[in-house]
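hey m, so remember when u said the tokens were messed up on ur end? i reran from scratch. heres the input so u can diff it against urs
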Amino acid sequence: MPEVANQQSLTKLVEDLAAREQIRTCYYRINRGIDRIDADLLGSGFFPDARIRWGTPETVDFETWLRTALTIQKKTQRTQHLVGNILIDLRGDEADVEAYEIARHLTPMGEEMKDLILASRYVDKFALRNGDWRIVHREKVLDWVRIMEGSDPAYDMVPGKGRRDDEDVSFNLFGKDAFHSLI
């Protein structure tokens, strides 16, 4: 009988590890989607009925959030979203997740380009539906903000500059639908 119990606990452990990896990968898809302005990849982390509050008084539906996020990002010249410290509390087909993020945006502010640096946390509720973990509710909490002068003369001299469109080196290496197989 102990062998069966060990087999069951090993199966449960593998299932939990797989769920955690799917949740982490969800964050990575979202961040690549926002940085490369890829609506499909960005949206792949959310169920269509998701509700999102991100620095606004009320939550909005997923479609409103996606449209607004892409509009804002298209005005931003360079950006990078780094996610880490992902804590996952699994409860069957649901999970509470808190993830920290540092994001840098070279963005227009008035007549100038400024570096907007945000330190925030995602307080997310995930659900497992049809074998897929995605966000059903997001609260984005802003912990601190820095706005800095935006000129970047060293960047202008670098030959391998990152791009936000399909001219980025990653598209040349991985293809137009880079990482869409993870959706």
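this time it looks ok to me. Residues 2-35 form the longest helix (34 residues). if urs says something different then somethings off w ur setup not the seq
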